[in-house]
Amino acid sequence: MFSKFRSGAGQASNSPSHPPSPSRQITFKSALERIRVDEQFFTGINVFKVNQNGKLEPALFTLSQDRFIISVLPRKLEPSNLNRTGSGGILRPSIILSRIISTSSTGGDSLDGAGSIDTAILAAATVSTDTVNVGSIDRIQAGQNTLKFELARQREKKLGLSRSINGIPLLNEDKCFSLIFRGAKTLDLMVDECGNREEILYVLTTIVKEYERAKLKVGNEVQLLRYIWNDVDRDNSNTINEKEMGELLNRINFQIKEKNHSAVYQKFAKTLGLDKATRKRGLTFEQCVILLHKTKRDTWQVKPVTQLFYDMFGQFMNNNKVRKKVSATSFLNRFLITVQGEEDKTMEDVKKIFASLHEMELAHVNNHVDEKDYISSDHFEAYLHSRSNDLFDPQREKYRQDDMTRPLSEYWINSSHNTYLTGDQLTSRSSVEMYTKALYRGCRCLELDIWDGGRDDFGNAIPIVYHGHTMTTKILFEDIIKALQMFLVLHPDSYPLILSLENHCSLPFQEAMAAQLKSILGKKLYIPDEQSLLGRLPSPQELRGMVVLKGRRPVGATDDYDTDDDAANDDMTDQQSVVTATTVKTSMTSLSSSRRVSTSVKIAPELAKLTLFHGTKFRSWDESIETPTYHMHSFSESRVRTFSKSSNAYKWIEYNQTHLSRAFPSGKRVDSSNYSPILAWSTGCQMVALNYQTPDEPLRINDGRFRENGEQGYVLKPSTLMMKGRVDPCALLMEVKILSGSCLPKPGGLSSGDCIDPYVIVSLFDCHEGREITSSQNTNVVMNNGFSPIWNFEDSYHFTVQNTDVAILHFAVWDKNSSPKSDEFIASASIPISCMRQGIRSVQLFDSNNTRSGAFDFASLLVLVRFEYSQAEL
Predict the structure, then answer these.
(1) Helix 242-251 and helix 220-232: axis angle, to 10°?
(2) Cα angle at 96 between 94 and 99, to 5 degrees?
(3) Does residue 206 lie within any of the structural domains?
(4) Could you count the other beta carbons within 10 Å of the beta carbon of residue 366?
(5) Residues 214-264: pLDDT tens digits?
(6) What is the value of pTM for the model shown?
(7) What is the DSSP secondary-structure string of 271-321?
(8) Alpha carbons 837 and 350: distance in angstroms, whole number
(9) Which of 161, 182, 214 lies at the terminal end of a domain, its last residue?
(10) How many other CB atoms are found less than 10 A from the CB of residue 723?
(11) What is the CATH number of the domain that holds 767?
């Protein structure tokens, strides 16, 4: 079958021989309107928006009538015009507009809603408008757990505010909430004293849940069109006219020259049989779905899906007509079993797949099939791009609670380095929000560098967190612990959060740390007793919902404590050589000195008894293996490479079978870049810590690793890393073809900009005999088409996988620019070889924040993957 992949002559035409059938109603267009919402959500609820500088400014929170768009509009505090004011003399427009393109620095979705607005009010307003599409919301959280709220609290403290000024109230945590959308952006609000935050949260949560439920029954094109509809329907007519069609095509990344817009529009409208008056009025949502379908179908290139359909099921049916449908029997035998290798599938499984496909809202065209035992080629294409057909095996992606009862040493644990930083290691801001972001990204081992701060008015010690002796800003240790406690309140079944404490504090401040940990976390803080320190380590299941400390336990006066800083000293000289600024050199010299003396700090008994994992200096593996299991090591990435190349590297694997170890980035990485985690994972190292503030390739590889097991942050290590003695992992040969893409967004999911010119880099990250191996290959560039790009699917990429237990295949989609250095990242997916399925598969793409919200929710690749040989055949 695969040998038949070709382009050119001999293929059936993709052009329709006659107009498509009349469109049917697509309910997803109005899927949220059934949700009952109080009228105040449409006319506006008084709130205060927190801007980038932490300043509160008056605004109105509104919903569009279709409930798909949330807008925060400007308002001005003014006691006049009482006939148009709400409570407190607040000026509000009589009709609320949610159709305003956002100019906010928070980067709203810039989507439109419905209505009109008093322009005089806008002219007097002091804040910009934010709009957020419901489909782009990642989560809704109560409280003040974002950077902008942190800045607002700092601002109030700095100004010494104790009461409202000019109508702007003080922060009230019980009135605050945030929308986190498109992976990392936040919209931070506080309702006024008369507002009901809980009602807003309830309505928003209900809307988001209904959206998530409804989108499962629509095709990608329908979901994409719904996402951009309010943005391209400029005149709010609920139709798309000739001019708006050009904007629609640009938004879906399919370029047609502007001079051709009219001809394309008129030709398509005539194909639908629309008269002149109807054509002038515009295309309905359902008709635009057909337009997208036609745009994808009518191409001079042979579509891979079309070729696959004919290759597997035959181009002609028994009656000699061109095949438009396929039976359940053929789908099972010729596709699932023969091509996909899913030999466990049954006819009952196929019936469920077919039933789901028939429920989907797709473009209603000539080849529509209503027979329950058949599907059309459009149904087949929808299945190929679906999550059900993902290259990442759904069985490996599922959460497996039965696997969570082994000792902690038998897991890879999602870990972060310098979790508090928002940027580089020297001058960036520290933020509590970074802990929340890391937790929601799946991280379960978080780092805190704690130092002596000042004292409050009562003389109490205030521990602070920052990158010591640098120009990074400082945050309170207490605020971080409160954020962790809030996360556990919302997610009580989370597997243990491990805090890696780099403790630089004097004894009074350590005592304050211990007191804050106990008072804030209460029963959620795991306190080991002497009996629990004997024998094997506890399991994730035993520590579920708990916070566990990694730091120091007193073991006598001769104790040699190992810190990340100590291990980094071998990198520090190199780091200083690459930093040229005098002030930075001074900072790094001070930092190096502080690290050399940090081990002289004594441990407070109150803190030590709360600590489970005790870091110790490495001398030899023979000595380390004999230490209690709660003893552990920390190694910089350079030492990971050194140990992995040594002749007794397998002893580190043996150590990691009963003990924990942690790897972290080299001190030379002042820019907070990351190293590949593959080599450390291959040794069984559990905590391979990365800089979460830097969304680079290594972090995306980490995302792929911990996508397994329901993104719980804990993945059971492969059996080869738990066997005694030296065990060589399996190897295989793999063939990959990149066939096509679907609904690829612009970089960053932006709504404006040129159509993209996408290409794909497919890379294998692997290791062999203690060395990292990386191999990459690129597809050709497809110009001006991110909606339905077709790459040269005759190109095969061959990879030799040396360590199938650890290796990861990485797909990255880029937008080609004039210079390779200026190419822009669009989306990616990382899939462990051990979690992959063969066959024709979908690759669900993620943005740089490892989310699929907004414009990334429907982005995917279609690939062919075959494993050619096993270890025995090599």
Answers:
(1) 120
(2) 150
(3) yes
(4) 12
(5) 999 999 999 999 999 999 998 889 999 999 999 999 999 999 998 999 999
(6) 0.88
(7) HTT--HHHHHH-B-HHHHHHHHHHHHH--SSPPHHHHHHHHHH-SB-TTSS
(8) 18
(9) 214
(10) 13
(11) 2.60.40.150
